[in-house]
Amino acid sequence: MSANVFLVPIDPENFDRTVRSAVDLTEYDDRPDNLADLDEARLWAVDDDSGNGSTFERMSEGDLLLFYHDGEYLATGRVGTTFEDEDRWVSSTFWTAFPTTRVYTVTDFTAVSAPKRAVNAIFDYSKSYTPGFMRVADSRVNADLSSIESAIDHYSKRNAEA
């Protein structure tokens, strides 16, 4: 069982188009082989300009994804399939201004609303810390992934009540 946690910054427009809503792939006969057997998928990627190739290479099926934007964590999910999209088919088909070859599918998507400071506390980061795309160090992951998801869900529900 995987125990990696990735903090993932998002561009809201592209994120809404391909993660918040699954993409219907049946309309695309030219899709990459890694997507050929899927009727739909939630798709995201690591920007080629981010320099995080080694972080992408450490992603495994089942790893926890925490998506954030503008001081808030907006969603959780799990890594599905990861692949190199050398032709940039996914980015040129679905995203604006996001050319990339390092693509992954997102499973178990859940919308949340948790403040950055609350999630930072889970991993013992300062309240104001804002990461780029990164893998949380093993020494900072002190609970199993489902417990982390539960804590974020708890913060999300508290936000909704406030």
UniProtKB/TrEMBL annotation:
Name of protein: EVE domain-containing protein
Organism of this sequence: Halorubrum saccharovorum DSM 1137
